[in-house]
């Protein structure tokens, strides 16, 4: 009897025939009952190696070494997989007799793919851990290199992905995956997604090729594309990247971009690769550089950037991928290195091609061209952000110094006509393009939402201002007064600037109070100021708000006393330069400079790191021009622009917000205080007729959605989808009819099973409706809805939620919400005046959490939250935000405890939103969570674990009370005074931990928890 289910089994049989008939793989059979299934089938591998003319001794030694690397129990799956990949890629070095040289046994014939033995088998039962059974496994020469999980059309492809991920866990079958290079999940309804070992669900990829071909299932179409013997070996050989602990395969645009570049390089031709911001240009650089260096023994690759920030980032990317890259320190160092055969891979700032003290630059260029510096090797020059570096004197120097180099330009923005001609002259035509719209469609980056905000600058008394001006300029004649006004602008502007900045500051703080992504403390923002002076002013204002200590200032300024030696006027007033200098001096007074860095650089490194890794503790970065290119922070969700910007600079800046970062980040938000972009019917055009749409067929049109226009469009679409889903329900469309339509006879299992797709669609559509409604619920009139429409839509939303809950209960099922919906947007029912933003936390001198513990939840609401005027939704969200904030800030003290509290919190929130709890029951459960959170322990905690440190060790060591007590004693015995941050003292504690744990990785994990405990 078929226990798997006919639809899935039918798909599986079809796929096997596809691999046999069209791809030429051998079918090895059904291995469900076969004993000793392995990722290295020794008989098959040995048979292949014999056909490749290797001797028995070499074969035996090579297989033994492969199996040892694949089954190393000390290393992680990532490390084992990397070691195995090295053997597959480069061969196994074996020595069969002492005194004789080692020989390399090639496990795969990369040069002739069809000489290898490609095979497929099904139902491969894996034992050793908890038993699992992948649907299909692909083998090359007896080595498992691919796993395919198939689902029937009624089940989410996400189930297949999560199954692949759980199979890789140590308690299941991690060892089997040490040889796996690619994993697939697919179904006839959703097509195919691919990843590799350790790829998180949200980073599984979709292939896209020959889109007009609709002749068969997308599942079959793309298995044929990717698993073609030549294509599969090429992917494994040239497109696998081990990047600082994460194994990566290319996205489709990266694959074809590199393929196109390879063709140009074979012809020694340059060109331009335009891949939109955030789509992974750095990975393209790494993979292309690796290919060039491997395929041309004389090749050398030079990566050129025009900003120090990008130069550091490029070095970091290559280093993370295991590629040693030399970062030049000066122009002299650069030319010295180019004159030697090594290093073969280096990066430099474009400015280092210039020369100081050159009066006649044209003569200098002619001299260079007549007698160019000696360079060794075939040079391939990658120019990052080439739209900025392709022109001007520095580039002429660069091409004069390296006249025979092949130049490849990389850009994330389309070239304007004024740039395009110069760029094409230097680099050649477009090699490959990947436009913003394509990246959004492929879910590589997020779409952008634009909102213009006007700051009113009315003045109270112009007469008084003019009188003040006349008094201050009494000694000046009319011409001098006019010149002064021209320099500073009108006095009205000068006097209103502080007021305006205060309004912007209040506006930003208001957003952090009410915008879900910001108030949850998972997202943060960048504010772009017009000048360093303005940035410092903003920073000063934010220090008087709850952002104190959670706001960073990153500009090109570095304070030196020479800046202010001539600034003192004796009037006891700060000049602009003095204000900037004093702001930075105060900011840096407690900063300790890191090795080879200034205090300013050390401070910037710290705030950038916090911004990326701890958004709750670094909410806002204030910048002028730094960090607007080459700075990737997935947490960054909002960009506030208070600076005149245009063209490339504007587009690169706004793309700081569109990096993927979890289901709760749906868009990148742009808030414009300068009126940079004018509203057009449905969108905002960043580039207009000046765009060059002729080169390479690229269409660089980029649109930003107007917030309310987009919000209404989404809401109307979701209402229509829901109406279509409910249209087939029989009259009179009461509860009974809805239950029959979506569930059938609930006492018959097959009825429920057959109607599962309808219910899944209903749940997903309802979730989309609630999100869309919440996004504009408090601005529906501004979005163009009439009063009657607003009532109608609100009623429809309530009815839809009730219908979903009724159907869910009738079906007796809990849907996997991860596959369908992100967190619901918060509904904001109360308004706060823009000039008086409500701050959620901290509240006065005592936090809301402490107040609940001290006086009870009812008194806390009556006191601290009285301003919310009984709005239950707003009160609930305020309490939840405070609890979530405390969890985020203190999680490292005890990850296990705070993760459990977080799960409880999400459960309560989910029940509240689903209206499964009445308000009183909700408050009771929240009070219990708050008290548990404040106590730092649950009621079942053993009595002798009487300190936070002991409890944290207990919680995070599998509730092993004896081990927790031993580690507590070990830490207290081995610690020294002021040990944190002092490496020898920290090593002494780690050594004491190792005596108990006997596991280096476990020591590092536990040490982080120990370091977070104040008692140690």
Automatic annotation (TrEMBL):
SMART domains: DEXDc. InterPro entries: Helicase_ATP-bd, HsdR_RecA-like_helicase_dom_2, P-loop_NTPase, Restrct_endonuc_type1_HsdR_N, Restrct_endonuc_typeI_HsdR, SWI2_SNF2, Type-I_R_enzyme_R_subunit. It catalyses: Endonucleolytic cleavage of DNA to give random double-stranded fragments with terminal 5'-phosphates, ATP is simultaneously hydrolyzed. Residues 262-432 form the Helicase ATP-binding domain. It comes from the Bacteria. One of its GO terms (biological process) is DNA restriction-modification system. Belongs to the HsdR family. This is Type I restriction enzyme endonuclease subunit. It comes from Rhizobium etli 8C-3.
């Amino acid at each position: 009897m078929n226990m798997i289910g006919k639809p899935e089994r039918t798909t599986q049989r079809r796929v096997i025939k596809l691999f046999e008939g069209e791809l030429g793989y051998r079918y090895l059979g059904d291995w469900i009952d076969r004993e000793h299934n392995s990722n290295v089938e020794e008989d098959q591998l040995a048979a292949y190696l014999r056909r490749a003319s290797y001797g028995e001794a070499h074969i035996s030694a090579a297989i033994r070494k492969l199996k040892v690397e694949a089954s190393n129990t000390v290393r992680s799956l990532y490390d084992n997989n990397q070691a195995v990949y090295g053997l597959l890629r480069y061969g196994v070095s074996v020595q069969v007799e002492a005194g004789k040289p080692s020989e390399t046994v090639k496990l795969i014939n990369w040069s002739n793919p069809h000489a290898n033995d490609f095979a497929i088998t099904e139902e491969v039962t894996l034992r050793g851990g908890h038993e699992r059974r992948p649907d299909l496994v692909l083998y090359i020469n007896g080595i498992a290199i691919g796993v395919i999980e198939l689902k029937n059309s009624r089940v989410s492809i996400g189930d297949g992905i999560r199954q692949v991920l759980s199979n890789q866990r140590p308690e299941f079958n991690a060892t089997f995956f040490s040889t796996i290079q690619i994993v697939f999940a697919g179904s006839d309804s959703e097509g195919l997604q691919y990843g590799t070992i350790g790829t998180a669900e949200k980073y599984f990829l979709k292939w896209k090729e020959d889109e007009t071909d609709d002749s068969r299932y997308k599942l079959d179409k793309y298995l044929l594309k990717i698993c073609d013997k030549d294509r599969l070996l090429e992917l494994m050989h040239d497109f696998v990247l081990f990047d600082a602990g994460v194994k990566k395969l290319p996205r489709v645009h990266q694959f074809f971009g590199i393929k196109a570049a390879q063709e140009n390089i074979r012809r020694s031709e340059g060109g331009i690769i335009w891949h939109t911001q955030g789509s992974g240009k750095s990975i393209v650089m790494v993979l292309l550089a690796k290919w060039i260096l491997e395929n041309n023994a004389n090749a050398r690759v030079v990566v050129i950037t025009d900003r120090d920030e990008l130069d550091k980032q490029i070095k970091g990317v290559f280093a993370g991928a295991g590629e040693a890259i030399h970062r030049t320190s000066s122009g002299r160092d650069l030319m010295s290195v180019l004159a030697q055969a090594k290093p073969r891979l280096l990066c430099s700032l474009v400015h280092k091609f210039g020369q100081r003290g050159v009066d006649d630059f044209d003569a200098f260029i002619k001299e260079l061209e007549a007698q160019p510096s000696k360079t060794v090797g075939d040079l391939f020059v990658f120019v990052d952000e080439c739209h900025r570096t392709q022109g001007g004197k520095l580039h002429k120097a660069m091409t004069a110094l390296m006249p025979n180099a092949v130049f490849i330009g990389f850009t994330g923005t389309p070239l304007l006509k004024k740039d395009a001609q110069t760029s094409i002259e230097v680099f050649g035509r477009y090699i490959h393009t990947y436009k913003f719209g394509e990246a959004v469609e492929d879910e590589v980056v997020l779409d952008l939402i634009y909102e213009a905000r006007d700051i009113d600058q009315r003045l109270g008394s112009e007469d008084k201002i003019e009188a003040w001006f006349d008094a201050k300029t009494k000694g000046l004649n009319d011409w001098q007064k006019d010149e002064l006004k021209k320099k500073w602008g009108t006095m009205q502007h000068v006097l209103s600037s502080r007021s305006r900045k205060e309004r912007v500051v209040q506006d930003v703080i208001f957003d952090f109070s009410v915008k879900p992504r910001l108030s949850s403390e998972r997202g943060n923002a960048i504010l772009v100021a017009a000048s360093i002076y303005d940035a410092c002013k903003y920073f000063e204002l934010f220090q008087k708000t709850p952002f104190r200590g959670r706001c960073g200032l990153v500009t090109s300024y570095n304070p030196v006393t020479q800046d202010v030696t001539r600034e003192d006027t004796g009037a006891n007033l700060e000049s602009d330069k003095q204000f900037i200098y004093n702001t930075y001096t105060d900011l840096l007074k407690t900063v300790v400079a890191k090795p080879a860095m200034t205090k300013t650089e050390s401070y910037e490194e710290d705030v950038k790191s916090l911004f990326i890794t701890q958004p709750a503790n670094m909410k806002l970065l204030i910048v002028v021009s730094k960090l607007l290119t080459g700075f990737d922070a997935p947490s960054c969700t909002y960009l506030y622009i208070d600076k005149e910007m245009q063209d490339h600079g504007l587009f690169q800046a706004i793309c700081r917000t569109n990096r993927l970062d979890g289901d709760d980040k749906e868009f990148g938000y742009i808030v414009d205080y300068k009126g940079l972009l004018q509203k057009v019917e449905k969108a905002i055009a960043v580039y207009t007729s000046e765009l060059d749409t002729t080169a390479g067929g690229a269409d660089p049109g980029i649109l930003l959605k107007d917030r309310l226009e987009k919000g209404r469009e989404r809401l109307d679409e979701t209402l229509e989808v829901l109406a279509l889903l409910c249209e087939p329900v029989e009259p009179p469309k009461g509860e009974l009819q809805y239950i029959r339509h979506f569930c059938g006879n609930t006492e018959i299992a097959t009825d429920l099973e057959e109607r599962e797709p309808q219910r899944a669609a209903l749940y997903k559509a309802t979730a989309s409706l609630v999100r869309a409604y919440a996004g504009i619920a408090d601005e529906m009139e501004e979005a163009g809805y009439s009063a009657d429409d607003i009532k109608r839509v609100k009623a429809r939303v309530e009815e839809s939620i009730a219908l979903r809950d009724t159907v869910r209960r009738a079906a007796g099922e809990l849907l996997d919400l991860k596959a369908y919906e992100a967190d619901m947007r918060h509904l904001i029912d109360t308004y706060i005046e823009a000039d008086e933003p409500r701050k959620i936390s901290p509240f006065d001198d005592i936090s809301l959490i402490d107040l609940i513990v001290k006086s009870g939840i009812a008194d806390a609401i009556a006191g601290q939250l009285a301003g919310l005027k009984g709005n239950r939704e707003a009160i609930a969200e305020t309490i939840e935000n405070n609890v979530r904030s405390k969890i985020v800030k203190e999680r490292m003290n005890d990850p296990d405890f705070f993760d459990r509290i977080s799960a409880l919190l999400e459960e309560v929130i989910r029940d509240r939103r689903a209206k499964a709890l009445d308000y009183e029951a909700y408050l009771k459960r929240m009070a219990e969570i708050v008290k548990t959170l404040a106590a730092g322990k649950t009621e079942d905690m053993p009595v002798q674990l009487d300190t936070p440190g002991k409890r944290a060790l207990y919680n995070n060591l599998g509730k092993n009370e004896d081990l927790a007590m031993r580690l507590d004693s070990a830490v207290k015995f081995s610690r020294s005074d002021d040990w944190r941050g002092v490496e020898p003292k920290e090593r002494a504690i780690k050594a004491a931990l190792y005596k108990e744990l006997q596991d280096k990785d476990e020591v590092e994990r536990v040490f982080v928890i120990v370091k977070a405990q104040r008692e140690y």
